[in-house]
Amino acid sequence: FSGRGGESGPGHVSSFGASATAKISVDASLAGAIIGKGGVSSKQICRQTGAKLSIQDHERDPNLKNIELEGTFEQINEASVMVRELIGRLNSAASRRPPGGGGGKPHPGSNFKTKMCERFAKGNCTFGDRCHFAHGEAELRRSGVA
After folding, report:
1. What is the mean pLDDT of the chain?
2. CATH number listed for the domain at residues 7-96
3. Number of other CB atoms surrounding residue 30 within 10 Å
């Protein structure tokens, strides 16, 4: 992840209850999993920390997404820790998968992972690893290749 840019509203950094925002840039392929099926992961982070979480397109790099956190400094710090822990779990789960993405081989002639997932690009694919569309160039299969 690249850095966080904390932008505070009026007031001093040390002022109690001051509102702030922070950005965490992550690989775009992680955005759907950070949201979770039906938004379960992002809702849990918001509920437990009180911070507001949103996922936006990165300003310059289409392969990245910005996780934007809004709330008090304490809420943002807590939410940031939870997001980073979630990413760590996702990365360790991905490293345990067999090469080729797991999930079995697609049937010859199937369209499995031959197109980019439009919902994922918008940050709202709820299928995660079970999605039949590619969540990045690395998952994309060329048509006609079995």
Report:
1. 77
2. 3.30.1370.10
3. 22
